[in-house]
């Protein structure tokens, strides 16, 4: 680019040369700078541009109402200002709350969020990651429980490591894999605390309705509950598995009722709050009153947990904060990611699990 001194060598601003949407060439022409300089400013390149030229480019872009091309920005920086979030479901309040925190962090860091739905399908998850990598996002957050014996784990890990080696950042919102970073609820400890709390309320025989035993989250919560019940002589009488959602909670509870196995339990523990809501509906349909004939618990403390009748006993996790922290970790740091952050929960006792006769309910 030619040297420009005071009053010499500056190009006169001119009107846009193109019709329709303004281009980067239009901005450069109006600002009187080279196309490369305009690109470095507007695509947030790592190469520095002097304050005077930066101001002229930004002013020209504003006057022309120029909008940055994310593909061009990816070419300039090696990545686009995008964070990709993979979740199992968007209608599950658990993932919605996490996504809220992710979006909050992304806004702070000046990036946008794209969401891919994996439906707890490991092949679909792998395909999504491969597709997303081609869009050159700055970071990828992988939500949803890991699956024991997953045949796609090796390929997924290879994709995420290659992404990291090319300058991207990958963080799990679940159990970590292959030494990559993770921010996740402390499922086992939270379930253990729940088991202890309901045992102290006088409950000893739990019927568990939950997702597939291949989901590591299910294993963590079921075993944690078992450990919490055991010191006071309690235990898990039966486990019934189905899909990890409201419909699964309804169906699995109906099967327990129809088979008579529900009669061996004094508390019904659902793998998450969404399942607990379906379970309570199934109990009522079967002539069993939740909170009176049998206690009910959930997990996660989604917003509706305090709105159902009776209000749901559960384990509260700061889900939005978990999403925010994971996005901060992915967007705000340099170097390799390996931190495994386990976020503790808090047992919230409500009317669905009242103290039984003779139980104090005191921790």
TrEMBL record:
**Could you cite one Gene Ontology molecular function of this protein?**
DNA-binding transcription factor activity
Would I find Transcription among this entry's keywords? yes
Coiled coil ranges: none
Region annotation Disordered: residue ranges? 1-23
Record key words, sorted: DNA-binding, Transcription, Transcription regulation
Q: Which SUPFAM superfamilies has this protein been placed in?
A: lambda repressor-like DNA-binding domains, Periplasmic binding protein-like I
Q: Which domain of life is it from?
A: Bacteria
Instruction: Give one Pfam hit by family name.
Output: Peripla_BP_3
Q: Tell me which residues make up the HTH lacI-type domain.
A: 22-77
Protein name, UniProt field: Transcriptional regulator, LacI family
Xref: InterPro entries = HTH_LacI, LacI/GalR-like_sensor, Lambda_DNA-bd_dom_sf, Peripla_BP_I
């Amino acid at each position: 680019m030619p040297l420009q001194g005071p009053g010499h060598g500056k190009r006169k601003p001119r009107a846009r040369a193109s019709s329709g949407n303004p281009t980067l060439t239009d901005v450069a022409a109006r600002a009187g700078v080279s196309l490369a300089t305009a690109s470095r400013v507007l695509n947030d390149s790592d190469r520095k541009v002097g304050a005077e030229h930066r101001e002229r480019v930004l002013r020209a872009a504003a006057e022309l109402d120029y909008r940055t091309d994310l593909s061009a920005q990816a070419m300039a920086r090696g990545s686009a200002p995008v964070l990709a979030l993979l979740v199992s479901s968007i209608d599950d309040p658990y993932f919605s709350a996490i996504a809220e925190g992710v979006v909050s962090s992304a806004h702070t860091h000046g990036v946008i969020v794209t969401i891919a739905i994996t439906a707890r399908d490991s092949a679909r998850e792998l395909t999504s990651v491969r597709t997303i990598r081609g869009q050159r996002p700055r970071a990828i957050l992988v939500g949803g429980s890991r699956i024991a014996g997953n045949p796609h784990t090796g390929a997924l890990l290879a994709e995420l490591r290659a992404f990291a080696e090319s300058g991207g950042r990958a963080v799990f919102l679940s159990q970590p894999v292959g030494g990559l970073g993770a921010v996740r609820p402390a499922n086992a400890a939270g379930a253990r605390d729940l088991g202890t709390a309901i045992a102290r309320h006088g409950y000893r025989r739990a019927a568990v309705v939950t997702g597939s035993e291949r989901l590591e989250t299910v294993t963590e919560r079921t075993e944690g509950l078992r450990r919490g019940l055991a010191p006071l002589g309690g235990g898990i009488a039966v486990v019934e598995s189905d899909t990890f959602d409201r419909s699964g909670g309804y169906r699995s509870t109906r099967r327990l009722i129809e088979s008579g196995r529900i009669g061996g339990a004094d508390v019904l523990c659902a793998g998450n709050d969404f399942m607990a809501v379906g379970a309570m509906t199934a109990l009522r349909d079967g002539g069993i009153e939740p909170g009176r004939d049998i206690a009910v618990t959930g997990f996660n403390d989604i917003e509706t947990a305090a709105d159902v009748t009776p209000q749901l006993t559960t384990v509260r996790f700061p889900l939005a904060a978990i999403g925010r922290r994971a996005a901060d970790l992915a967007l705000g740091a340099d170097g390799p990611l390996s931190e495994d952050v386990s976020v503790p929960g808090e047992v919230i006792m409500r009317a669905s699990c009242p103290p039984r006769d003779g139980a104090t309910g005191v921790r």
